[in-house]
Each structure stands twice: as structure tokens, then as C-alpha cells.
Write a structure and sequence with these properties.
By secondary structure, the protein is of the alpha/beta class. The chain has one domain: P-loop containing nucleotide triphosphate hydrolases (Rossmann fold, 3-Layer(aba) Sandwich), CATH 3.40.50.300. Helices cover about 35% and strands about 25% of the residues. It is built from 8 helices and 10 strands. A hairpin with a 2-residue loop joins strand 1 and strand 2. Helix 3 crosses helix 4, helix 3 runs parallel beside helix 5 and helix 5 runs parallel beside helix 6. The longest helix is centred in the last third of the chain and has 16 residues. The protein starts with a strand and ends in a 7-residue tail after the last helix.
């Protein structure tokens, strides 16, 4: 498989020399193209910090992060902004949709910022919305649809520019159990049918069981990894819960 991301000995410190916190401690791992990978760990384990440095939202204190041959740790702020727009998609817990725009406009806006023409934007927006089952909601505003429909809109927005990877930070956190299942099935569709590479931070064992591989963080270090392989999602869920019982992870099950 083609390696998409390689993180090498990354460390992240917060604070000053009198009050220093090490959030990431010599973390090394890779993500292959087409993977659906989860990051789990107890509160304060470093999982959100890890996502933020991979997404160029935060900077590492030391170490390197490569996307192919490109080392993103040496980019300027302007270069990082361009890199995010051209390569990354994001799905957040609180949707981050603009209330004054329709669902279609929320999605097409992300593509219009890249300077594409209106015909291409309209065609691609419709295609993405149809594939995710929300085209019939195109003229609705966010306040007129359910949480699960908002999150599918957020997924469409994340996919619209064909990013190299999609980062999802606790994407099911604001959803009820039915909507959470719908979103996770959407992620599976995005991953398996649309070949999207997804990296998801979650504290929820049920959500994590949809992943193909899970990295477990403890005290800023990766201490364990699970690969689903051919086992059922139910068996994978039980394996995840066993690991969380050791790590002190929250291990919520919907």
C-alpha cells in the first residue's frame, strides 16, 4: 500500500520551562492511502494534539511529518494554509456549517474558494450530495435538517475538493445513536466506495469499531495498535474495549 503520511519522532510541548507539559512524546507511525484509521485514548492522552499537528493546525516542537516526500513541519503559515485547502478535508463535532447558506451552498463554497468554475462546482456538488443521499435537501438551511443530515453535509463539504485525507475530530459526539450510526456508515461508504483516506479521533468504542486500524495513545505515546482484519465489527469492538480497560480510555459504547 502507498504510504500517505509518515510521522517521525514528533514531540509537542506546551507552556514554558517553569510549567512544561509534554503532549506528544516521540510519536512515530504511518497512514497508508485508503485507510480508515482511528486514534483513541483517555482525556489528555494527546489524541487531539496529534490530529492538530498532522493537519497543520498546530506545530510540532520537534520531529517531522511527511506527506509523501513533502515535510509539512518546515512550511510557512501561508504555505500551511494553501496545503490545508489543497490536500485536507475536515469533519467536526459541531458541524461548522454556515446557517445563512443552504446545504448546497455550504458544500459548493468550499470548492469555489479554490477558484474552480461554476459549472464544475455545480456538477461536482450535485454528484457528492447524491452519493451521500442529501441532494433532495439541497435547498434546506442547516436549522431545517437533523443532526445526522448536517453531518452528512459536512462530509460532502470535506470531500468536495478530493482531499488526500479527511480528519474527523469526535464526529459523532453531538449525535444521537441513530444519527451516529448513519454517519459512520457514511464514512464506510466514503472509504470503500469513494476511496477516501480517513483519520478519526474518538473516545467512543462503538465509533472506533468501524475503523480498519486503531492507534491507542497513552501519556502522549502510541502504546498499542489494533488491526481489524477479517474479524466482525462486534468482535473488533470487544477487542477495543479490552484495550481501553487497560489504558483507562473512556470506552463509551452507544
Amino acid at each position: 500500500m502507498e504510504e500517505l503520511i509518515f510521522a517521525e519522532d514528533i514531540e509537542k510541548y506546551y507552556g514554558n520551562k517553569n510549567n512544561l507539559t509534554k503532549a506528544l512524546d516521540r510519536v512515530t507511525f504511518h497512514v497508508n492511502r485508503g485507510e480508515f484509521t482511528g486514534i483513541m485514548g483517555a482525556s489528555g492522552s494527546g489524541k487531539t494534539t496529534l490530529l492538530n499537528v498532522l493537519a497543520t493546525v498546530d506545530t510540532v516542537t520537534s520531529g517531522h511529518i511527511y506527506y509523501g516526500k513533502d515535510d509539512i513541519t518546515v512550511l510557512s503559515e501561508d504555505q500551511k494554509s494553501d496545503f490545508r485547502m489543497e490536500n485536507l478535508g475536515f469533519v467536526f463535532q459541531d458541524f461548522n456549517l454556515l446557517d445563512t447558506l443552504t446545504l448546497e451552498e455550504n458544500i459548493s463554497l468550499a470548492m469555489s474558494l479554490t477558484g474552480k468554475g461554476k459549472k464544475e462546482i455545480d456538477t461536482h456538488t450535485r454528484e457528492i450530495m447524491e452519493r451521500l443521499g442529501i441532494w433532495e435537501l439541497r435547498d434546506k438551511f442547516p436549522y431545517q435538517v437533523s443532526g445526522g443530515q448536517k453531518q452528512r453535509c459536512a462530509c460532502a463539504r470535506a470531500l468536495i475538493n478530493r482531499p488526500r485525507i479527511i480528519f474527523a475530530d469526535e464526529p459523532t459526539g453531538a449525535l444521537d445513536s441513530k444519527s451516529a450510526r448513519m454517519l459512520l456508515e457514511t464514512f464506510i461508504q466514503m472509504n470503500e466506495e469513494m476511496k477516501a483516506t480517513i483519520l478519526m479521533v474518538t473516545h467512543d468504542a462503538f465509533s472506533a469499531s468501524y475503523c480498519k486500524r486503531i492507534l491507542f495513545l497513552k501519556d502522549g505515546q502510541i502504546f498499542h495498535e489494533l488491526v481489524r482484519g477479517s474479524q466482525s465489527r462486534k468482535d473488533f469492538l470487544n477487542e477495543i474495549l479490552d484495550v481501553l480497560s487497560v489504558t483507562g480510555g473512556d470506552g463509551d459504547v452507544r
